[in-house]
Design goal:
alpha/beta, TIM Barrel, eight-stranded parallel beta sheet, three-stranded mixed beta sheet, 16 helices
């Protein structure tokens, strides 16, 4: 890594708006969580109360030595009713951006992270003919937030996972390493169209902003004898989204595990290794998946800068979290040494938060008391901040 690269490298932690803010009452997920007979084990409720405690969250990031913070902007708060833009909520997110800068953090807002306004979902959601223009109307409404010095924007979080699970009751079901269903082709196309539209809109209105999106790219590996069908498996699940990103300023890579793809009756099929340790989400504990995912993404994207916008492990054992992250980062540096253009690393998640139906999986660098909402930094937060400072000091 050169000195110039070290200055630009992003060292951050990530949160999702619905998973941390709490009381996102006008969203489709809130409706799903609170409807009679909901299949979800738990509603988000107050979540981590980050809507009110975002300053504490940012203090934790800045005090650790990390330099960047990725957080979400909730469309359902900005436009709670069709055509009504809440200026108070726009100002709320402007204060968050300003608060990040006050703490020496570079903010990276995410514009869509699995949730939409309830009115939008009830009228057809992304299947509406005018879905992309309606999304752009929301993006236009938050231009005052993005124009306050923001350098990078993530347009859409995991469009491929959304295209798989938009109608599912729970996004997290262990399927990442046990075989991800094929994303709905129509919804995949709509996600790509929405991302392209926002990228072009921002380039026209705020050309200083670099935009990208965060794609779920796991370390899929071809088993011996399955090389000829491997592309058939990975193409609709993530590579079609990578291919569509070749014109982006950067591409986010969100990696947690690997999947070994074999061939059964001439078709690609994930091979299950029940002997490997798994995390609280049921995913194989395989930290070096990060390097493999980065290399596969680079094979598609060439020199487009890659930013790891999510990587982490669900565990109550913080020493295991540190060991996982250290091995994942080592694989990142090896990929970078092999020529992969990696521009940043964001850990998922800053907080133990709501994981789409449950508070069970613990991804956080910080624990949150479910009654008082008191934040308690785990040793892994200081460890990651020290790693960031060490790398920056080296260069």
């Amino acid at each position: 890594m050169t000195a110039a690269e070290s200055v630009a490298f992003l060292w951050g932690a990530t949160t999702g708006a619905h998973q941390t803010e709490g009381n996102n009452t006008m969203s489709d997920w809130w409706q799903r969580e609170t409807s009679p007979g909901s299949p979800l084990p738990s509603p988000s409720g107050d979540a981590a109360d980050s809507y009110h405690r975002w300053r504490e969250d940012m203090d934790l990031v800045a005090d650790s030595g990390l330099t960047d913070y990725r957080f979400g902007i909730e469309w359902a708060r900005i436009e709670p009713a069709d055509g009504f833009i809440s200026l108070a909520e726009v100002d709320h997110y402007r204060r968050m951006v300003a608060g990040a800068f006050e703490r020496g953090l570079r903010p990276m807002p995410t514009l869509f992270h699995f949730t939409v306004p309830a009115w939008f979902a009830a009228s057809g959601g992304w299947h509406r003919d005018d879905a992309v223009p309606r999304f752009l109307r929301y993006v236009e409404a938050i231009l005052p937030v993005l124009s306050d010095g923001v350098e990078r924007v993530e347009t859409i979080n995991e469009p491929n996972i959304y295209a798989v699970l938009a109608s599912s009751s729970r996004p997290g079901d262990g399927s990442l390493s046990r075989g991800l269903p094929v994303p709905d082709p129509q919804l995949s196309a709509k996600m790509i169209a929405a991302h392209d539209a926002v990228r072009d809109f921002l380039r026209d209105r705020l050309p200083q902003i670099q935009s990208g999106w965060g794609i779920s790219v796991q370390d899929y590996q071809a088993a011996e004898g399955a090389e000829d069908v491997f592309h058939d498996y990975v193409w609709p699940r993530d590579e079609v989204f990578l291919e569509a990103s070749k014109g982006d300023d950067w591409v986010g890579i969100q990696t947690y595990t690997r999947g070994v793809i074999g061939k059964v009756d001439g078709l690609p099929q994930p091979l299950i290794n029940d002997r490997s340790p798994v995390t609280q989400t049921g995913w194989e504990d395989y930290p070096r998946a990060l390097g493999g995912a980065l290399k596969r993404a680079a094979d598609v994207l060439g020199g487009v800068p890659l930013i790891v916008t999510e990587n982490g492990i669900a565990t109550d054992d913080d020493e295991r979290r540190i060991a996982f992250t250290e091995a994942a980062l080592q694989s990142l540096w090896e990929a970078k040494a092999d020529g992969v253009n990696v521009a940043g690393y964001f850990h998922w998640s800053l907080l133990d938060n709501y994981e789409w139906g449950t508070f069970g999986p613990r991804f956080g660098l910080v624990s949150v008391d479910r009654v008082t909402f008191q934040r308690t930094a785990k040793p892994s937060l200081a460890w990651l901040g020290a790693k960031a400072k060490e790398r920056l000091d080296e260069h």
